[in-house]
Amino acid sequence: MTPSLAAVVAGARRRALRDGDRQIDTAHLLHSLVESDPDVGDVFEGGHQLARILGYLAQRSIGYGLRWQRSVEDSGARRLLPAVREAEPQGGGGRASGWSPAAVAALECAFRRAAGRGDERARGLDLLAGVAADPENRAVEVLRRAGVDPVALVVRIEACIESRIEAQVEGRVEALGDGSGAGSPGAFGGEPSQQV
Question: Of 30, 42, 92, 124, which residue is least crowded by CB atoms under 10 Å?
Answer without folding.
Answer: 92
